[in-house]
Each structure stands twice: as structure tokens, then as C-alpha cells.
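job 3f2a | input accepted
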Amino acid sequence: MEVELAGQTARIAGAESAILEAVVAALRANGAIVTRDLAPASGSPRQGEDEAGGGEVLGESIAAPDILILAHPLAPDAAHRPEALVAEAERIASAMVSRGSGRIVHLVSAAGLVPMRRHPAWSAAAASVIAAVRALAMTAAPAVRVNAVAVGRIEAEDEGGADPAASGDAAMLSHVPLGRAGAPADIAHAVLFLVDPLNSYTTGQTLAVDGGWTTGYGRNF
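job 3f2a | predicted structure (221 res):
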């Protein structure tokens, strides 16, 4: 998928995974200058290096990038607290509003849309991120567009990239109408759609990329 991001700065913060690597690669392939937060979970992010080349620290562009991607853990973790990344979104949104433009995208588990009975605390944490997306979309409008991608079962080379909702279970896939897991590129394409400058009328939304899992297809409860 191709979008025009030449010269735009994109800041990445949060949990590392094969999915996030695919997002970073897609942003860079479309011309974005990508930086990584060196302390994504601390609540006090530090400046990262320019991954588009040269290792140059981007200074002020880090404080108010054109694009902010926040990656929440995509595997069940009852201890996860999303407050740090949510607060970071609010801080960066304020700088974006002052500048007059910006895009923020959270990557969160689809369990935030349909809770998992065995992981109630983690599902609630994911749901709180989705609520925060809607709230920030209101307060940061009209300058900033704030959205989320709800990640379903994704096949990845490392376990960290696979979504929880299944951990590779055939049982999980039996509830996916499309009958298969997705790929990291599917999430990357969804992110590109949300940050595409031509997509100017989408905010406060959570785009489920889950093969239909959140429709409740064939679920016994």
C-alpha cells in the first residue's frame, strides 16, 4: 500500500513486536522519517534516533511529530497499565494542536472490543485505551485525528507479535469468519490508511483488523 508521507516525522512508542516492525517499515517505505522512543513504558519518553538514515536526533520534531504511533501489548498481561502511553498521546496531541495538525494511532488488542473471559483485567485495559481514543479525538479536534487499530490474531515470526486473542490456537481461529490469521502487513496497511493525508474525515474510530473475530461469529457464550 502506498501513501504520500515524504518528509513527515513519525514517532513510535510502546511494546516491541513483529507487528510494530511492519508498521515502522511501511512508514519508512512511504517516506516518513521514523524515530523510536528509547523509554516507551516509562511515562518519560526520551528522544530517539532517526531510523531513516544517519542516526540524527530530530530534536523538536520528537516533541511534536506529524504522526504518533503508540503500541500497547498485544498478548495478555494482567499487569499492563495503559496510562503512560495514554498520557503521552495527550501530551503530544497538545503540541500537535498548537502546530495545527497531527495524526495519532494506538495499536491495541481486539480484546478491547470483545473482552476475553480468561483475561478480564487486560481486556478492560485495552477497552480503556479505546475510550481514551474517542475522548482525545474530541478534545484535539479539528487539528488532530486520533484513531486506533484493534489487532486480532496475527501470525508473526516471534511470539510477541501474535495477538493474544489466540496465541495461535485453532480454537481462536474457529471464531474468525475469514478462517485464518492475519499478517503483520495487514496491520501496517490499516495504519497507513489512518495516517494518509488524503484520509481527512476519520477520527475517534477503532478499526478492527481481526478477520471478523469481533463480530462474535460462532462464539459459544
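job 3f2a | DSSP finds six helices and six strands in the chain.
job 3f2a | closed
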